[in-house]
Amino acid sequence: METAYLKKSFGNSLTQALAEVARVRPSDPIEYLAHWLYHYRDVTNAKEKEKQEDLQLKEEHDRSLQEVKMTEMQKQEEYQTQQECEKCHQDLLPEALSSNKTPALQKDTTPLEEETRRQESPPGVSRVIAETPQRVFTS
Fold first, then answer.
1. How far apart are CA 109 and CA 115, in angstroms?
2. Which residue, among 120, 96, 118, has the nearest Cα to 106 in the 3D structure?
């Protein structure tokens, strides 16, 4: 029962500490053992903290790589969309200018111009007066 507790609590560290005490043979082996165990704990904690920091840095690095990939994908999609829009505009421009596709653009616009002139005359002024040339009389 006690050995299970010691193995669980100390693991290999107690065996290593006792082997070090036997090798060095200090004048106060208990104090030496205590300092060795404290030092072992500090080193072990520092290593564990370093592992956690390395893991965190790796995760942050992976996230930043994913963000860069996503940004590149978005830029690529925007570029493709822009290329498709430019292609559509290039395809539509010849169609709009061709004689078969746009008969409305080729109609005589004179009636529309006359209607516009009628609408532009100020209110209360007849169309005849608005269309007659203005003469300036000088004396």
1. 10
2. 96
DSSP state of 61: H
User: pLDDT value at position 1?
Assistant: 75
Tokens 């395809």, residue?
91
Q: How far is CA 109 from CA 43, 81, 102, in A?
A: 92, 37, 14
Q: Contact 74/81 with Cβ under 8 angstroms? A: no
Structure tokens, 9:
């609590």
What burial letters (b/e) apply to 99-114, b meaning 16+ CB within 10 Å? eeeeeeeeeeeeeeee
What is the block-wise mean pLDDT of the chain (139 residues), using blocks of 10 residues?
82 89 94 94 94 95 94 93 85 64 59 69 56 57
